[in-house]
Specification:
about 650 residues, mainly beta, 22-stranded antiparallel β-barrel, 3-stranded antiparallel β-sheet, 35 strands, globular
């Protein structure tokens, strides 16, 4: 049934595709330093009838373009950076091995284990296209893993565009009670009035992220026992005796975390400025309007619900880790935290230089109303925040400067603030771009560290002070020499963490983290070497464990064959040094600091791949975790081994109407 549906989707678009599609304008997404390379390996020749497709993010004056590269399967197809680890299965609880602290002032519920799979207003794209554009993705892997994605955008008129995005991730996994089932939906739209004074933006998204929680395998020794060659027979800590069913459309997960998030944002802008009619030819005139002053209103609604459900709780796991007594006749352990936000923001924007929307001054205020609903109580509170930003991205694209700040003047999060500054300079084609930036955040610890409630017990920690995090960064981005470099220096005070499965704590003293992230492509035509390296070192006694060294390397043969075939084939391996990897608390959905069990690679994670693109069609054929054929599986966290040998076939097909 699933293959029939995919076939129908592909055939519907196929006849329009063959005669009309052209990949001319597809290139890199752009962006600055940070360690990721997204260079397009294909050449595109200009043709008379081309597609121009760009998008922007809210508050960002830069245009981006679709990335059609086939070099990075994880970023361009799975949408999950390779530096992320999971609890063993695709779509499971995840965190970045290249440490990235949460640096956002104001209220935060604290449930982030599945953030990488979800949508948010921050990553909403608002498109502008000359032709309707559709993209379809489908992946099938071992153990019935499937990923399905559909995107479509079009300009109904020159002044109105909409974009739709749907993505499904479904993977039963190799071990018991590990099934993941994610569904995400997004609809964005933008509208500009005929006189170009009024602009409207709308973003609506919904995440339904379900991850099976098995608490890890019961003992490492099972991986070496020939009686458990079928990994689904290995005993796990949660869900051993539960019955489950799997179907691509209806999946039953007896022990699971479920994150359901809905967001609606509407932004209205009205401008005052000057307009001119530009005469293009005898029959065409173009009206150009340059704003000088803008009033901007933003309405934001968000509803987030975190739930944990175990219908047949284990009688040993919960008493050991959560001090919750469980009897054989007990029916379930259940937790639910629901948060609802209503936010109204009014901003005034000044554009000092006519015709440069990248040069502006923005000041405003935001009023937030929060409501929390738990199994035993409700809570309501408000926040009032002031914010401002100065941005100057020069017309010649050589300089980019920004300074922004946000301060919570009143409410539950009074005293929270964030300030940041950035200076970017384009030196020349050979030396590329360099960037200096600094950020400081003072914030109330996430709410889950202060209070957590389930149907069996409730935990409090009322002794937490505000966290303070500072980040200093130097970054370089060089397209000619094909490298990215980011050097980060973090300083932490009152760092908040989980010291066991249900107790939070703070480290009051100052400690810091040095981080160097480097990516480069070396070309020895027709061969290429993509190298990604990260070095991290904690200074002080802070409760933070990170691998000192992480690397991913891709050795590939790359060549354009038969005019339209772009081929990339080779091997990929990933490795990090031994370290005390964080444990995972399934009930609370939090990563737990530990110093008792060190995670060590037996052999690098090894993959073989063949990626190719023929005009608008891309395919990804991958044999992953080849290292498990001659060595024991590597671990993501204590008692959480990675999958066994895995085969994946993914296709990506895009076309214009």
């Amino acid at each position: 049934m699933r293959f029939l549906i995919i076939t129908i989707l592909l055939l519907v678009g196929g006849q329009q595709l063959m005669a009309q599609f052209n990949t001319n304008r597809f290139g890199n997404m752009g962006g600055g330093g940070g360690g990721k390379m997204t260079s397009d390996t294909g050449r595109h020749e200009e043709e008379p009838d081309t597609l121009t497709l760009t998008y922007r993010y809210l508050g960002e004056p830069t245009d981006f373009t679709i990335d059609s590269s086939i070099a990075d399967f994880n970023m361009q197809y799975l949408k999950v950076p390779r530096s992320y680890m999971t609890t063993g299965n695709s779509g499971g609880a995840a965190r970045n091995l290249i440490f990235s602290p949460f640096m956002k002032a104001g209220f935060d519920a604290g449930f982030h284990a599945y953030d990488i799979y979800g949508l948010s207003h921050e990553n909403a794209r608002f498109y502008n296209t000359t032709r309707p554009y559709t993209e379809m993705n489908y992946l099938v892997g071992s153990k019935q893993e499937q990923v399905l994605g559909v995107q479509h955008t079009q300009n109904r008129t020159n002044r109105f565009n909409f974009f739709f995005d749907y993505r499904k991730v479904n993977a039963p996994g190799y071990y018991k009670s590990q099934t993941t089932n994610h569904n995400t939906y997004r609809l964005t739209a933008r509208y500009q009035s005929k006189n170009k004074r009024a602009n409207s933006y709308m973003d609506l998204y919904h995440n339904n992220l379900q991850g099976g929680e098995n608490g890890g395998i019961r003992s490492d020794s099972f991986l070496h026992n020939s009686n458990y060659n079928n990994r689904r027979t290995i005993p796990v800590n949660l869900g051993n005796d539960n019955s489950s069913s799997y179907n691509f459309f209806t999946t039953s997960i007896p022990v699971k975390s479920q994150y359901r998030q809905t967001g609606f944002l509407f932004q209205q802008q009205y401008d005052w400025g000057r307009g001119d009619t530009i005469h293009i030819n005898d029959t065409t005139d173009y009206y150009k309007y340059d704003p000088i002053f803008r009033v901007q209103y933003t309405f934001n609604f968000q509803n987030s619900k975190y739930e944990f459900t175990d219908n047949l709780p284990d009688t040993a796991f919960y008493p050991l880790h959560y001090n919750i007594p469980v009897r054989a006749q007990d029916s379930s352990i259940f937790a639910r935290h629901q948060w609802q936000l209503l936010s109204n923001d009014l901003s005034l924007v000044q554009f000092p230089v006519r015709g440069n929307l990248g040069h502006f001054i923005n000041v405003g205020a935001r009023f937030e109303s929060w409501q929390g609903t738990f199994l035993d109580a409700d809570i309501n509170f408000s926040n009032l925040a002031l914010h401002g930003e100065y941005r100057n991205k020069t017309k010649n694209q050589r300089w980019d400067f920004s300074a922004k700040g946000e301060f919570y003047l009143a409410g539950q999060n009074i005293g929270d603030y964030s300030v940041s500054g950035m200076l970017r300079r384009h030196l020349n084609e050979l030396l590329g771009d360099v960037k200096l930036s600094v950020s400081n955040v003072n914030r109330e610890p996430s709410y889950v560290y202060k209070y957590f409630n389930s149907n069996r017990t409730t935990w409090y920690n009322e002794s937490l002070n505000k966290e303070n995090i500072t980040q200093l960064q130097f970054a370089a981005d060089n397209k000619k020499l094909k490298y990215n470099l980011a050097v980060n220096y973090f300083l932490f005070t009152n760092y908040t963490y989980m010291q066991d499965y249900y107790h939070s704590a703070q480290y009051g003293s100052l400690f810091n983290l040095l981080q160097v992230v480097f990516s480069k492509k070396f070309s020895f035509s027709p061969f290429s070497w993509y190298v990604d390296v990260a070095f991290q070192q904690v200074h002080g006694d802070g409760p933070m464990n990170v691998p000192s060294f992480w690397t991913r390397n891709r050795l590939a043969f790359e060549k354009r064959l038969f005019t339209n075939l772009n081929l990339m084939t080779g091997i990929e391996f990933r490795y990090n040094t031994a370290y005390y990897a964080d444990d995972y608390s399934p009930l609370m959905g939090q990563w737990v600091y530990q110093k008792s069990q060190k995670i060590k690679y037996q052999a690098p994670d090894l993959d073989a791949f063949v990626h190719f693109r023929i005009k608008s069609f891309s395919a990804f054929v991958r044999a992953e975790n080849l290292n498990t054929l001659f060595a024991t599986s590597n671990y993501a966290a204590p008692l959480y081994p990675y999958n066994n040998f895995d085969f994946r076939l993914g296709i990506r097909w895009w076309f214009i109407n």
